[in-house]
């Protein structure tokens, strides 16, 4: 994300002018922009042309016009596969041909600047801006999770897992004494997956590419990738050989990716990426919870009690809590996060578009790992 300008007042209101540069930035903006924020940007709008008598009736012709509008945001629409984020709301300032209070849908895309106005820039919002505008390159990982006849090519970033391609091909079963048809079809499948991977993933930029499957299917794909690279004298791909990691998964579907990310070898390769640390932390939470030793809790009330006791080592939150339209709820979790930090604990915010964030959302989206056992946090204080 490129920061062009910013201005903040003493009462925490203010504005920033930004340019989104990739999908990761759009996801950050999805978490940053809230209802009742104002966004000012250039956008195309259909404008009715006046007739000879000056009227703009139903039969009047329309033309598209580039305007600069300021809208009060009511709806935000973004999915990881999109390269734009859509905002809908009412205009707040008069513009020629567009009265105040008119609904408009605008798009935030790559390379075009916009200005975001907030009445209250809290710590989470500042952190999102500072982090997304860092000059440090964002860690990214590619992955192919497959089994015979089906492959899923994914791009994993700090905040999301994006399915780039799903490939399906019919592979005939091996016949007794004759596996030629099976082997020929499987080889063509490997070739198709190899070519698609090279086309859809920027291998030179990625830190690692995971090939995971049940059995030896991933090994077969690895061999095919570099057989083709050798035949084509693809020096860039051959130089990236050390980035490829072959791993075992119980399935060739996306569920297998989460289990692969927990393995020691994968963790060594991905030790600098945030999402890998998130996976390990969530795994630690569930192991501690299953041990039932009073050192892991989930749920808003239980976690708030533990935080106010100063007992929290790790606070786990999903980003969906900070997208709440309830300003009081958002502020509550910001305050709880600050308490944890001030008492020596760590706060980790999980992406709800990652498998780890989805799992955390299934247990209320808020959880804690404690420094020492605390029992009966789930009992009401007035219970005897």
Automatic annotation (TrEMBL):
<dbReference type="InterPro" id="IPR058547">
    <property type="entry name" value="Pelota_N"/>
</dbReference>
<keyword id="KW-0132">Cell division</keyword>
<keyword id="KW-0131">Cell cycle</keyword>
<keyword id="KW-0469">Meiosis</keyword>
<keyword id="KW-0498">Mitosis</keyword>
<dbReference type="Pfam" id="PF03465">
    <property type="entry name" value="eRF1_3"/>
</dbReference>
<dbReference type="InterPro" id="IPR005140">
    <property type="entry name" value="eRF1_Pelota-like_N"/>
</dbReference>
<dbReference type="InterPro" id="IPR038069">
    <property type="entry name" value="Pelota/DOM34_N"/>
</dbReference>
<keyword id="KW-0479">Metal-binding</keyword>
<dbReference type="GO" id="GO:0071025">
    <property type="term" value="P:RNA surveillance"/>
</dbReference>
<dbReference type="GO" id="GO:0051301">
    <property type="term" value="P:cell division"/>
</dbReference>
<feature type="domain" description="eRF1/Pelota-like N-terminal">
    <location>
        <begin position="1"/>
        <end position="134"/>
    </location>
</feature>
<dbReference type="Pfam" id="PF03464">
    <property type="entry name" value="eRF1_2"/>
</dbReference>
<dbReference type="GO" id="GO:0006412">
    <property type="term" value="P:translation"/>
</dbReference>
<dbReference type="GO" id="GO:0070481">
    <property type="term" value="P:nuclear-transcribed mRNA catabolic process, non-stop decay"/>
</dbReference>
<dbReference type="GO" id="GO:1990533">
    <property type="term" value="C:Dom34-Hbs1 complex"/>
</dbReference>
<dbReference type="GO" id="GO:0032790">
    <property type="term" value="P:ribosome disassembly"/>
</dbReference>
<dbReference type="InterPro" id="IPR029064">
    <property type="entry name" value="Ribosomal_eL30-like_sf"/>
</dbReference>
<dbReference type="InterPro" id="IPR042226">
    <property type="entry name" value="eFR1_2_sf"/>
</dbReference>
<dbReference type="GO" id="GO:0070651">
    <property type="term" value="P:nonfunctional rRNA decay"/>
</dbReference>
<protein>
    <recommendedName>
        <fullName>Protein DOM34 homolog</fullName>
    </recommendedName>
</protein>
<dbReference type="GO" id="GO:0051321">
    <property type="term" value="P:meiotic cell cycle"/>
</dbReference>
<dbReference type="GO" id="GO:0005737">
    <property type="term" value="C:cytoplasm"/>
</dbReference>
<comment type="function">
    <text>Component of the Dom34-Hbs1 complex, a complex that recognizes stalled ribosomes and triggers the No-Go Decay (NGD) pathway. In the Dom34-Hbs1 complex, dom34 recognizes ribosomes stalled at the 3' end of an mRNA and engages stalled ribosomes by destabilizing mRNA in the mRNA channel. Following ribosome-binding, the Dom34-Hbs1 complex promotes the disassembly of stalled ribosomes, followed by degradation of damaged mRNAs as part of the NGD pathway.</text>
</comment>
<dbReference type="InterPro" id="IPR005142">
    <property type="entry name" value="eRF1_3"/>
</dbReference>
<dbReference type="InterPro" id="IPR004405">
    <property type="entry name" value="TF_pelota"/>
</dbReference>
<dbReference type="GO" id="GO:0046872">
    <property type="term" value="F:metal ion binding"/>
</dbReference>
<dbReference type="InterPro" id="IPR005141">
    <property type="entry name" value="eRF1_2"/>
</dbReference>
<dbReference type="Pfam" id="PF26356">
    <property type="entry name" value="Pelota_N"/>
</dbReference>
<keyword id="KW-0963">Cytoplasm</keyword>
<dbReference type="GO" id="GO:0070966">
    <property type="term" value="P:nuclear-transcribed mRNA catabolic process, no-go decay"/>
</dbReference>
<comment type="similarity">
    <text>Belongs to the eukaryotic release factor 1 family. Pelota subfamily.</text>
</comment>
């Amino acid at each position: 994300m490129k920061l062009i300008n910013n201005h903040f007042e003493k009462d925490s209101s203010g504005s920033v002018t930004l340019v989104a540069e990739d999908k990761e930035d759009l996801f950050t903006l999805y978490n940053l922009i809230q209802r009742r924020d104002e966004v000012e940007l250039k956008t195309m709008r259909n404008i009715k042309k006046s007739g000879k008598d000056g009227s703009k009736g139903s039969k009047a012709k329309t033309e598209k016009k580039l305007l600069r509008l300021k809208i009060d945001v009511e709806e935000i629409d973004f999915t990881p596969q999109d390269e734009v984020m859509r905002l809908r709301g009412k205009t707040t300032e008069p513009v020629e041909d567009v009265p105040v209070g008119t609904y408009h849908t605008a798009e935030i895309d790559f390379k075009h600047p916009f200005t975001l106005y907030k009445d209250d820039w809290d710590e989470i919002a500042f952190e999102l801006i500072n982090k997304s505008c860092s000059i440090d390159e964002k860690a990214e990982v590619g992955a192919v999770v497959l089994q015979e006849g089906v492959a899923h090519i994914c791009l994993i970033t700090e905040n999301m897992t994006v399915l780039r391609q799903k490939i399906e091909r019919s592979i005939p079963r091996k016949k007794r004494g004759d596996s030629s048809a099976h082997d020929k079809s499987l080889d063509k499948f490997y070739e198709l997956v190899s070519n698609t991977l090279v086309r859809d993933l920027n291998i030179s930029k990625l830190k690692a590419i995971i090939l995971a499957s049940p059995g030896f299917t991933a090994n077969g794909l690895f061999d095919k990738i570099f057989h083709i690279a050798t035949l084509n004298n693809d020096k860039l791909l051959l130089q990236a050989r050390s980035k490829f990691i072959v791993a075992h998964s119980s399935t060739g579907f996306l569920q297998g990716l989460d289990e692969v990310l927990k393995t020691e070898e994968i963790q060594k390769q991905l030790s600098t990426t945030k999402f890998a640390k998130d996976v390990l932390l969530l795994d630690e939470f569930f192991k501690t919870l299953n041990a039932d030793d009073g050192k892991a809790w989930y749920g808003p009330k239980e976690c708030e009690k533990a935080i106010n006791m100063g007992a929290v080592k790790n606070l786990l939150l999903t980003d969906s809590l900070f997208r709440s339209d309830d300003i009081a709820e958002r502020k509550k979790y910001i305050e709880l996060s600050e308490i944890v930090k001030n008492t020596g604990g760590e706060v980790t915010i999980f992406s709800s578009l990652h498998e780890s964030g989805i799992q955390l959302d299934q247990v209320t989206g808020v959880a804690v790992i404690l420094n020492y056992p605390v029992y009966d946090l789930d009992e009401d204080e007035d219970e005897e």
